[in-house]
Amino acid sequence: MTKIKTSLILLSAMCLIGMISGCGGSRAVSSSSRMGTVRFSIKWPVATRLTKTRKNGTRVIPVSAQSIDISVQDTGGKVLAHRLFVRPTSVTTTGQLDITNVLAGTVKVVAKAYPETDGSGTLQSQGSVLVTVEPLKTVNASLSMASTVTHLKIFKDTDTINVGDRLTIAVNGLDSSENTVMTAPEDWDWGADAGANGTYASFVSSGLLATVTGVSPGNYVINTLFLGTDASQPDVTISTAFKIVGVGSNSHIIILDHGNKRIVGVNDMSGAGFTTLGSGVTFYAPLDMALDSTGNIFVAEYQSSDATGFHKGRIVKLDPNGVFVGEFIPTSPPSMLYVDKQGKIYWRDDNLFINRIDNISGANLQKFGGISSGLFGDPVGLAIDSGGYIYVLDGTGNRVVRVDNMSGANPVRYGTKGNGRDNFDLLDPLTYSGANHGLSIDKDNHVYVADYANNRIVRFDANALNDITTSNFNSFPINQPYGGNGANYFFPISVSAVDEGPPGAFARIYLTGEEKAARSGPFGTNDAINDWIVKADTIGSSNLTALHFGGPVGSGQGQFKGPLSIAVR
Fold this sequence. Notes:
This protein is an all-beta fold. The chain is 0% helix and 48% strand. The strands form eleven sheets. An eight-stranded antiparallel beta sheet has the order 4-3-6-7-8-1-2-5, with no helix packed on it. Strands 9, 11, 12, 14 and 15 form a five-stranded antiparallel beta sheet that branches. Strands 10-17-16-13 form a four-stranded mixed beta sheet, with no helix packed on it.
């Protein structure tokens, strides 16, 4: 990275009358007494640390400057004389430059500092002064040079770092044309604003670089001040903000592990970074989970009893780091959950109502459905398309029901029980427990269903609910479980369609499911051999080609016991 340097220069100019017998040139001069010499005494600076209050007022030339370009001009701007003064290579820090044969009168002296010895590179500072050369007299003048740095630019790879991680940032000084101006390390001052809630990071700085280390989750601001200006110039500063996040916020994939009563985060489809989330809260009966647009995690817990007592059903909110934020306790326990793009929270209760609140405080409760409405028999999934229509996966009806909005108006139903086209079999035949959160919609309004007992993922167009002949129904059987015996069967429990592919491509499919040795058996119990987390990057005509992790049912690192819900951020 190019260094940046700007400063203030103070030059002494002394005009001496030259005893010259004559002078040739285009301008006729009758007497040498009408000519003069402009003499500059220059003190080259050495690197010294500046302060916010002192800034560069005690320097005559930028520390990084290697040459001073000096010109003498008439009042119309015509250059009468020009010289380049180069920084000495010796330890001598002072020098003298004479510009001879200057015609007596008022002239303009212009000085410019450059980072190269040949007067090249981006201009660092400049200044000018009018000097009156009088015959047979000496005139002293002072010239002050102002920095050309007008603004600063920060270079960093990210705005977010994890606790314990380090990030190096750099700063450049730019002129009004966006050119980088060379500066010296001594020209910079760094400071930090940790905010009102404590220290979230630490940093060390050296010249144009600073290294930030995350200490605790929170927001952190670093302020940078360019000192290479004269005290009379305005400050040139920049601030850059960082978000320090906990380990859990690095989790890309979030899984509700029902049997182990936990929420798990992993970094990628290798299962790396396996982390239990939920600091500050204990889960007893988590059934479903959803994310909002900022990465907050919401969990629906059904009411339960254990040795510690009776636990009411509730909706729990965790921040993106997996830390408990708050909870809402509805009058009837929730068993299905969805959060829309505006952050509104939807759930199904025991009375088959679909409820909605604006936020975790429970504000503006609305609902539709209910047992007496006959809209659906067992809502097990919910999603909303780009037009705001609400889709409910009806477990006992083996169908998708669409309504206009929270009024429940104009219900339209798609699907019947079966294993063919436009059919679903969402329930385990022995226990009548089915796919939970088994419904998802992508940005193009393709609807995805975890067709549990048919061992497949189904995709169809949303307009099928208006005209079944346009459904573009596709089913993708999962015939080969991921590991174990190829004769076993995979039962998809939940599905999440994530728009992370190239433009025009179908969404990537993330799903959870159970591997069993038989086509029937109790849902989520010990007959499941393996529990898998699966990502389908490509969807073929007969099988999912997928990444996966998981394995034998258990409670250890990388194991699951009934992964009921999956979400990706």
